[in-house]
Specification:
- This is Acyl-CoA dehydrogenase-like protein.
- Residues 185-317 form the Acyl-CoA dehydrogenase/oxidase C-terminal domain.
- This protein has 335 residues and is an alpha+beta fold.
- The chain has eleven helices and eight strands.
- The strands form two sheets. Strands 4-3-1-2-6-5 form a six-stranded mixed β-sheet.
- β3 and β4 (135-140) form a beta hairpin.
- α1 packs parallel to α4 (62-71), α6 packs antiparallel against α7 and α6 (177-208) packs antiparallel against α9 (289-301).
- The longest helix is centred in the middle third of the chain and has 32 residues, at 177-208.
- The protein is globular, with a radius of gyration of 20 Å.
Length: 335
């Protein structure tokens, strides 16, 4: 029910034109209409208890919603804000109004300042809920120095807070790990959604584009590339669901690692194949494909690429020397 209602808002107010408008805006610009629509409908409180005006959804119910956000390349940190509000409530802190994003790895410098590299929506968010050496910290983005990544159209930025702008931690050692997991799981779902969109666009183009009297989708070589794309898109979707399959309030570490590793691993192949089959039109600014493939490459690196998360999966496997890989996979899927 929630997914369908949110999808309707996304179709109406998060189309390619809205994405382009958000890319052209800067810090302090007007909020995209889709943010107000989601906020006014109460969809930022999906994890909040019912007696606090929320929907009290289980973690698993978020997977299709966050995947839909990725499918539409949502230009606001709705997924991050939903997670941040839940994490803040667990500490007894009432979430502030405005956009809240997540920083899964915030570094404490020798002079007491904090640096959060490549924060998603770091240019546009009002607050950052950060993992600072395992501690949970809520930071005012307006008091930070924001340095854009330099990637065209990206809202990500490296944020730096001077020592005087750093507040006390909300929770102690280990509490910040939930931010890292949630952020990685959100990006895994976003990748799965965006790849589904890219595959749909590619399949449609191959069916519409004709060469030698028939659609190029009828050629065996093209069909082979489409089938490989389809396999990776399907696997990514399953992996993203795994990240949100646990019974806890925060994505499990191993499930998140598998999800982020698998989805990130699929990005280079899916994106490159989509552009290869589209030909020159796929890289033009006027064509929508680049709106999604650019984000796929950015989300692949966010919170660590497949190399980082595969190392976590490998360590978990090696910690069970008596288990076969099949047994390990079954146990991971049963989380």
């Amino acid at each position: 029910m929630f997914t369908e209602a949110i999808e309707e808002i996304l179709r109406d107010q998060a189309g390619p034109d809205a994405i382009r408008a958000s890319e052209a805006s800067g810090i302090g610009s007007a909020r995209p209409a889709v943010w107000s629509a989601l906020e006014d409908a109460g969809f930022l409180e999906l994890l909040a208890p019912e007696d606090d005006g929320g929907a009290a959804l289980a973690l698993a119910a978020l997977a299709p919603i966050f995947t839909a956000f990725g499918r539409h390349a949502l230009p606001v940190p709705a997924a991050q804000s939903i997670a941040a509000r839940a994490l803040l409530r667990d500490t007894g802190v009432r979430p502030p109004a405005g956009m809240i994003t997540l920083a899964g790895n915030c570094l404490r410098m020798a002079d007491g300042s904090l640096c959060a590299p490549r924060v998603p929506f770091g240019l546009t968010s009002d607050y950052v809920l950060a993992n600072v050496d395992g501690e949970l910290q809520l930071l005012d983005a307006g008091e930070a120095q924001r340095n854009a990544t330099g990637v065209r159209g990206s809202a990500s930025a490296t944020l730096t807070w001077k020592r005087g702008a750093v507040s006390a931690p909300l929770a102690g050692e280990g509490a910040g790990e939930g931010v890292r997991r949630f952020s990685a799981a959100i990006h895994a779902a976003a990748i799965a959604g965006a790849m589904d969109r890219v595959f749909g666009m590619t399949l449609q183009y191959c069916n519409d584009r004709s060469q030698f009297g028939k659609s190029i989708g009828k050629f065996q070589a093209v069909q082979h590339q489409l089938s490989v794309m389809a396999q990776h898109v399907a696997s990514a979707g399953i992996a993203a669901e795994l990240a949100f399959s646990g019974a806890g309030r925060v994505p499990a570490r191993l499930a998140t690692a598998i999800a982020k590793a698998r989805t990130s691993m699929a990005v280079p192949l899916v994106a490159s194949t989509a552009h290869a089959l589209h030909g020159a039109i796929g890289i033009t600014e006027e064509y929508d494909l680049q709106l999604y493939t650019r984000r796929l490459h950015e989300w692949r690196m966010a919170d660590g690429s497949e190399t980082y998360w595969n190392e976590i999966v490998g360590e978990a496997l090696l910690a069970q020397p008596q288990a076969t890989v099949t047994d390990f996979a079954r146990a991971a899927l049963a989380v």
